[in-house]
Each structure stands twice: as structure tokens, then as C-alpha cells.
Design brief:
By secondary structure, the chain is of the alpha+beta class. It has two helices and five strands. The chain has a five-stranded antiparallel beta sheet with strand order 2-3-1-4-5. β2 and β3 form a beta hairpin. The chain starts with a strand and ends in a 10-residue tail after the last strand.
Length: 120
């Protein structure tokens, strides 16, 4: 069995519950990623959470969690499909962490230049 990773796509939100648009975005991102990762044989979507950021309770986020193999290929595929599907690609952060560990997530991509930190 190949090594697995958590891959999380994070979007900023304006409130804890999110807007109707945030709910639509969550559903669409989960649908597109589930199909894309499964078709490529790279993994699956494992769920989401919406609400306060753990690191900054004044910020709100939507996190979509995936379990993937081949970290770099999966990362490239997720970035490409979110961009091509026009799913707010310019607002995302993507981070990974080895599956089955309690390590911190490592930021792999941020749409905004200069962003270097990531937390749930």
C-alpha cells in the first residue's frame, strides 16, 4: 500500500455559519474533488468543517478534507481542477499532512502571495 496524506483545501468565510454561496461552494468543491480524485485513482473526499479558525477565533474558514496518495500529483490535480472549474481558486490555501499522524499541516499552496502560514 502506498503512503497516504491528508490534503485540505481551505477557503475564507465572513461568518461562522457561512453564506448560501459558501454552502454551494462546499458542495460543489466536494463533488468535483470526489469525482476527480476517484477517476485519477488518487484518493477521496473525507468531509469538511465550517466555522471559526482554530488558530484565530475572529476568522472563519471552510475546510474540505481529502485522503490522497501521491502527494505532489494530488496537489497538482486539485489545483488544476479548482482553477478550471472556477471554484474561487484565487482564495484558497492547500495544505497536507501524512495520514495517521498528529503532525501539523504544511502549507503547499496559497493563492495570495506572501502567505506562509496555515492552520485549521
Amino acid at each position: 500500500m502506498s503512503e497516504q496524506f491528508w490534503l485540505v483545501v481551505q477557503y475564507p468565510m465572513k461568518s461562522a455559519k457561512g453564506s448560501q454561496r459558501d454552502s454551494w461552494l462546499r458542495d460543489k468543491v466536494m463533488e468535483v474533488l470526489e469525482i476527480t480524485l476517484a477517476d485519477a485513482g488518487l484518493g477521496h473526499v473525507d468531509g469538511f468543517d465550517m466555522g471559526k479558525s482554530l488558530s484565530d477565533p475572529k476568522k472563519y474558514v471552510l475546510n474540505v478534507f481529502c485522503v490522497v496518495t501521491e502527494e505532489e500529483r494530488s496537489l497538482a490535480l486539485v489545483k488544476r481542477v479548482l482553477r478550471e472549474s472556477r471554484l474561487d481558486y484565487t482564495r484558497i490555501k492547500i495544505a497536507t499532512m501524512p495520514y495517521g499522524t498528529e503532525e501539523a499541516y504544511t502549507l503547499k499552496y496559497a493563492a495570495k502571495k506572501g502567505v506562509t502560514d496555515f492552520s485549521l
